[in-house]
Amino acid sequence: MVEIIPIQYKVPIAKPKVGVAGKTGSWRWIKPVVDNNRCNKCFQCEIYCPDNAIIVDPEKGVTINYDYCKGCGICSEVCPVKAITMIKEA
Amino acid sequence: MVMPKVILTGNYTVALAAKMARVDVVAAYPITPQTGIVEKLAEYIDKGELDAVMIRVESEHSALAATFGAAVAGARAFTATSSHGLLYMHEWVHWVSRARIPVVMAIVTRTIGPPWNIWSSYEDFFGQRDTGWILGFAMDNQEVFDMTIQAFKISEDPRVYLPVLIGLDAFTLSHTTMPVDTPEQEELDKWLGPRRQGYVIDGSEPLALGNLAWPEDSEEFFMDLQRGMEEAKKVIREVDESYGKTFGRKYGGLIHCYHCEDAKYHAVIMGAWSGDLMEAVDILREEGYPIGLIRMRFIRPFPDEEMYEILNGSKGVIVFDRAISFGSLGPLYLDVAANLTKYTRKLPYMRNIVAGVGGVNVTHKDFYELVRTTIDDLEKGVEPPVFTWYHRR
């Protein structure tokens, strides 16, 4: 058994939290837009999204969290039915 | 109190100590002359005498990585290596200390090649000098046992939380038998206590280790590591005291002093060949030479206060190094000299004799001659050269 006795020193560990680096979606200059009528719910965009900013619901289709989507465009690249288009931010 | 005495090689002594410390995980890769340690541990596990997991890995780099991973997750973890194996795992040596994770590792010191050579030399050990590990070095198999047990206690002390490396000489200790006093398991369990560490990563909550940090934050981590080392000096002395009280053997903390009390000249050394120097000191004492011996038990943290206390006012100090910092002097000499400057500008005459490198045998007769001629010269007012690489065939 291990006893955890908190350390009096700085240690290089971090507890991951949503938004700890701010709203990183503000870095985006192109934006993924979804046509949920075309979506076949294959989950590829959710699996590939490096920022965990996409959720696919089997009923409703794709939702993108624009607070943290940096606009990398990977979802649009991997979508087999071309349901995600990248458009320029206003 | 029954203290069973067993006849053990240095390697089997390390294995027995790790077993009696009840390690949970051993990850190791074989290398001469260390192999006996992990073979014996594998045998203990196989026979059901030790409840632990042996992780077989494809290299030393992975051996320490796996040991580290297990330790981060809360296991009392142990590994051992030598020479080129240690060099290969060097990156992970830094990972463990900078993450402040208690781990104990034994290093059976061996010459670094080329040329290929398996005899004892301390370059592999000194190669870990700046890693942030506590560095201990044993003189005989009894101390190997005691120091390995003490290492777990020191490493897991919340004031320290740093890994500990224990050096022992190839063959002179690793493959040579000696009677070793061992404590009762129950009493040892009580003294050592359960595994302690500052944090665990065991999947119960998301935790990231080793993220990007700004320079200022990074520097503060390392300043804290330096503070941990300062604390370790106290803890090493305390642990040695309390071990001595419980099991009847104490060594003097960070150093072991031999005939220091009335000495006018001093020799500084570490490792198995300290025993040969002790024999020389005995003869020299009989002949009236006022020589004392300081044997380094730990070089990190460096026992600066002890060294100053003993060496201040010495008429002459000889530091024996079984390693060389090519282009400079022996690493132990560099440390002794530099640390004295923290306390005084009036350094005693100091001499560095590098010898035994590559495993060359140095006997008590060699030590006798070197110490005697140095003292005779100094008494005549002649200062021998500061640096000598002593070599004979």
Tell me briefly what this model is.
The complex is a heterodimer of chains A (about 90) and B (about 400). By secondary structure, chain A is of the alpha+beta class.
* CATH structural architecture of the largest domain in chain B: 3-Layer(aba) Sandwich
Lateral strand order in the biggest sheet of chain A:
3-6
Q: Quote the distance from N terminus to C terminus of chain B.
A: 49 Å
CATH architecture of chain A: 2-Layer Sandwich
Largest sheet of chain A: 2 strands, antiparallel
What oligomeric arrangement do these chains adopt?
heterodimer
CATH class of the largest domain in chain B: Alpha Beta
Number of domains as seen in the coordinates of chain B: 2
Quick one: how many beta strands of chain B?
17
Estimate the mean pLDDT confidence of chain A. 93
- Please count the beta strands of chain A (DSSP E, at least 2 residues each): 6
The CATH topology annotation of the largest domain in chain B reads as Rossmann fold
Tally of helical runs of chain A: 2
Which class of chain A in CATH terms?
Alpha Beta
Task: State the helicity of chain B in percent bands.
Answer: 40-55%
Give the domain tally of chain A: 1
Largest interface, with counts of residues having CB < 8 Å to the other chain, equals: A-B, 16 and 31 residues
Content of β-strand of chain B = 15-25%
Protein traits:
heterodimer; A: 90 residues; alpha+beta; Alpha-Beta Plaits; two-stranded antiparallel sheet; 2 helices; 6 strands; B: 393 residues; alpha/beta; Rossmann fold; 2 domains; seven-stranded mixed β-sheet; six-stranded mixed β-sheet; 13 helices; 17 strands; 40% helix; 19% strand
Structural notes for this entry:
The complex is a heterodimer of chains A (90) and B (393). By secondary structure, chain A is of the alpha+beta class. Chain A has a single domain (24-88), classed as Alpha-Beta Plaits, CATH 3.30.70.20. Chain A has helices at residues 44-48, 74-78; strands at residues 2-4, 13-14, 30-34, 54-57, 61-64, 84-88. In chain A, the strands form 2 sheets. Chain A has a two-stranded antiparallel ribbon. In chain A, strands 4-5 form a two-stranded antiparallel ribbon. In chain A, a hairpin with a 3-residue loop joins β4 (54-57) and β5 (61-64). Chain A starts with a strand and ends with a strand. Chain B folds into 2 domains: 6-247, Rossmann fold (3-Layer(aba) Sandwich); 255-389, Rossmann fold (3-Layer(aba) Sandwich), CATH 3.40.50. Chain B has helices spanning 10-20, 35-46, 60-72, 83-88, 90-98, 123-126, 141-155, 185-192, 215-247, 274-286, 304-311, 331-340, 364-379; strands at 5-9, 25-28, 53-56, 77-81, 104-109, 134-137, 164-169, 177-181, 195-197, 208-209, 255-258, 265-269, 291-296, 298-300, 316-321, 350-354, 387-389. In chain B, strands 3-2-4-5-7-6-14 form a 7-stranded mixed β-sheet, sandwiched between helices. In chain B, strands 11-13-12-15-16-17 form a 6-stranded mixed β-sheet, with helices on both faces. Chain B is globular. The model of chain B has no long low-confidence stretch (mean pLDDT 97). At the A-B interface, β1 and β2 of A face β9, β10 and α9 of B.
